[in-house]
Amino acid sequence: MLNLCMLSGSFEYDSEVSLTAFKTFVEKHYPIQANLIVYNSEDHDPSLAALDDADALLVFTRRLNTEGASLSQFQAYCEQGRPIVGVRTASHAYQNWLAFDKDVLGGDYQGHYGHGPMTRVEIVEAEHPILKDIPAFDSYGSLYKNPSIRDDTSLLLTGRTDEHSEPVAWTRLHNGGRVCYTSLGHQQDFEVEPFLRLLAQSILWVSEQI
């Protein structure tokens, strides 16, 4: 059984509700036990001691003011090259460590386009294990701008509206460990089964289970 630690602290996207639903899904369908750590406010610094025993970490936080021991625990996990999956606002997960986006996730978050149009999510690397049996699907959130993701990333998915196209999921290695990030993760995305399977298979992949 894989021990997954999930960090919830993206209040704009109701991450606690979304990750609670994902926990139910992933524990039902995959050999994964999920431990949810919830930030109650942008200034809340819960202990991240659970990271010590985690087989993988899923991050869904947004501009938290975390500092001190909690931030150091998070940074230590990353620097050890351990498995990481980032969801949507993880690109700006901690206000005191915005370099996490480029240095660890390999992204280049530059804001997002306006709300309104659906995003068509299209497969780029169909043979990748993360994308096994996952078709193209629609996403409900605004499309994130990532104009210059790092050269050492492997692009999995792009998102397209009538006017714009952007990378929306990719993988890379950080300090020898596997990382996967997706800018998808609107509340309604967690009602879309291909998205839920994308997250679950990302966790298995970063943990070298597939």
For the biggest sheet, the summary is: 9 strands, mixed
Structural class call reads: alpha/beta
Main-sheet strand order equals 2-1-3-4-9-8-7-5-6
Name the assembly state.
single chain
CATH architecture designation of the domain at 2-109 and 171-206: 3-Layer(aba) Sandwich
CATH topology of the domain at 2-109 and 171-206: Rossmann fold
With helices defined by DSSP (H or I, 4 residues minimum), what is the helix count?
Answer: 4
Q: Considering the protein shown, what is the CATH homologous superfamily of the domain at 2-109 and 171-206?
A: Flavodoxin domain
Q: Kindly, what is the distance between the CA atoms of the first and last residues, rounded to a whole number of angstroms?
A: 14 Å
Secondary structure: number of strands: 9
Share of helix among residues? 10-25%
* Chain-averaged pLDDT: 96
Anisotropy-based shape: globular
% residues in beta strands = 25-35%
